[in-house]
């Protein structure tokens, strides 16, 4: 946490600035299935080579957070199911999802699928904290999650600095024993998240907590990190710790020195990431047409 702008202790978001263009973009008509693929090497199909496809997607499913124009929950369920079936993602990190809707998708996928879900909470000025409810009737609480085709064990919420007044997001890790893999999804606090202290910065401490929780080679971690990649054009590059891009490579990272990546948000920014120390096979960006975020998919060799 940066001492000049960060709080001494440990989130209401309001409507994030990155939602501003969503309604206009939706009315103009987003392309519903634009997919770009960057390969990093031959996709060997030998039976002895195990591989796994993972994805991260901010579903923009909390309608009151500027998501009313990004599609119905029925449409979002269809797109999520497509990531798990047509796109082949067997582990999916989700942000801005709704608990009851996610459970509906899991049931449709079948009994072999599992979820780990954590609700967002909102803390008021009096210190009272309550879970955030999705504004769609019957959708349940709003939160972030892991959807997996394999059993999840050692599910852990990672402690991290959070706003004193406002929406509190978080970091969630689990083990996919079938691939001897630890996975961690995160939804970090955007700028001005703390209603009482809008200048305080949280992403530096949150990124450190995420990288520390995933400090092994057999890990895939990421999610909606609410920050652009480090570089000369990003004045907030200082929030990035040393591990990402060095000890672990990002899905869309083309070389050791590269910090670039394709946009994952309709505003023209990259906010969504997947990092790993495992060999990367393929990275793709998929516009579902039903969120202001694109889905990011990473295929890794796990054996």
TrEMBL record:
Record-linked Pfam families: Exo_endo_phos
Keyword Nucleotidyltransferase included in the entry's annotation: no
Keywords, ordered alphabetically: DNA damage, DNA repair, Endonuclease, Hydrolase, Magnesium, Metal-binding, Nuclease
Residue ranges of domain Endonuclease/exonuclease/phosphatase in the record: 55-293
GO terms (BP aspect): double-strand break repair
Domain of life: Bacteria
Cellular component aspect of the GO annotation: cytoplasm
Known cofactor(s): Mn(2+); Mg(2+)
InterPro entries on file: Endo/exonu/phosph_ase_sf, Endo/exonuclease/phosphatase, TDP2-like
Molecular function terms, GO-annotated: 5'-tyrosyl-DNA phosphodiesterase activity; endonuclease activity; metal ion binding; single-stranded DNA binding
Listed name of the protein: Endonuclease/exonuclease/phosphatase family protein
Species of origin: Streptomyces sp. R08
């Amino acid at each position: 946490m940066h001492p000049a702008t960060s709080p001494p202790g440990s989130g209401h978001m309001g409507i994030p600035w990155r939602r501003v263009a969503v309604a206009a973009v939706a009315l103009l008509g987003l392309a519903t299935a634009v997919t770009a693929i960057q390969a990093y090497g031959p996709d060997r199909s030998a039976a002895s080579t195990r591989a796994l496809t993972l994805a991260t997607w901010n579903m923009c499913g909390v309608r009151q957070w500027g998501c009313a124009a990004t599609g119905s929950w029925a449409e979002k369920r269809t797109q999520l199911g497509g990531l798990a079936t047509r796109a082949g993602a067997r582990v999916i990190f989700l942000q801005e999802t709704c608990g009851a809707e996610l459970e509906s998708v899991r049931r449709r996928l079948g009994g072999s699928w599992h979820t780990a879900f954590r609700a967002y909470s909102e803390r008021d000025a009096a210190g009272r904290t309550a879970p955030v409810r999705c504004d769609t009737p019957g959708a349940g609480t709003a939160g972030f999650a892991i959807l997996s085709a394999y059993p999840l064990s050692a599910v852990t919420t990672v402690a991290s600095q959070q706003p004193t007044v406002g929406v509190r997001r978080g970091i969630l890790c689990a083990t996919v024993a079938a691939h001897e893999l630890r996975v961690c999804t995160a939804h970090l606090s955007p700028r001005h998240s703390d209603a009482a202290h809008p200048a305080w910065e949280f992403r530096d401490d949150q990124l450190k907590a995420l990288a520390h929780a995933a400090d092994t080679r057999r890990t895939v971690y990421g999610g909606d990190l609410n920050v652009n990649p480090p570089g000369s054009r990003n004045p907030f590059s200082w929030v990035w710790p040393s591990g990402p891009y060095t000890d672990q490579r990002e899905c869309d990272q083309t070389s050791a020195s590269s910090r670039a990546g394709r946009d994952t948000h309709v505003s023209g920014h990259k906010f969504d990431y997947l990092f790993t120390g495992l060999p990367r096979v393929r990275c793709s960006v998929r516009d579902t047409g039903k969120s202001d975020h694109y889905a990011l998919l990473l295929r890794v060799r796990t054996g």
